[in-house]
DNA sequence: AGGTGAACGTTGCATCTGCAACTGTTGCGT
DNA sequence: ACGCAACAGTTGCAGATGCAACGTTCACCT
């Protein structure tokens, strides 16, 4: 009963832990807000739409199975369904049946989609550099990468190669 | 035209930058998902509700101006209004007029709110430790804290002391 | 073959969120 | 004092998202 707070208080975080954890949460949320606002303003793309299109341009043949896309974009499958609906309405992607699995569909990026995401990507990456990468030294970047790999490894036991 | 991609391709991120940036985004999103799911399941609190209550218990007299709370929780003011509505309906906070400014309100945490957030905090912090802090050495935590401070400083020029 | 459980994608429903517009209040400049 | 811009909080509205349930198809096992 020598603690300062109530007797049932759980062990809180010390200064170091607090700075590492809360700082990350706040940084990520604020950066995401900022980047999304610019994407919407300059390119008419939500962050999730940008992420999906980005994964598509980077994929083989510009196509990906919907469920893979959901995993990559960290969206529920229903959320992805409706996002693809919107993108298809805007002519940025099309759905194509999967020849080898009648249950499945591919999302395929269109030429218009490629143009739009390429333009958006330039501004987005400029932003990432200006607000994040330029403030972190090469050595720190290496270290960050190692940390994320460690944590993600623990979070996602079985992940594609 | 010796590049592999189209001629208009912007400079993308190299391996190191990619690992540092994408890793952070993915880590944060997956951790938030995980933590929120557990908070909802075990304590009936959304992540934003937890954050608001947490800021309130940590605040002087368990009270904070609504707009300060919105800033702390990184929510729009309308979003916060409705969140406080919900929390008030559940008896976890109450609104009180601000004596010195007739435009303003305080959100004040109730005894019930304190109980609930204290219980939730224990599990939440256990989770943060298990999935994040325990995987990061003390030195790395120090370094992370320094990085976030640097970035947040640039993002939020004028911040309260 | 036949059957059963799992996977894929979609839909109904409820919830959460932000933007823009609005009301009321403050404080500053004249 | 007065007027006017800025601020605090709320509300209408539209959009995005997840969960649970569903129909269809696949894969495996006997």
UniProtKB/TrEMBL annotation, chains A, B:
InterPro entries, sorted: HTH_MarR-typ, MarR/SlyA-like, WH-like_DNA-bd_sf, WH_DNA-bd_sf
Ranges that cross the membrane: none
Signal sequence range: none
GO biological process assignments: response to stress
Domain HTH marR-type: 1-153
GO molecular function: DNA-binding transcription factor activity
Superkingdom: Bacteria
Any coiled-coil regions, as ranges: none
Pfam families: MarR_2 (PF12802)
Protein name: Transcriptional regulator MarR family
Organism whose genome encodes this protein: Patulibacter medicamentivorans
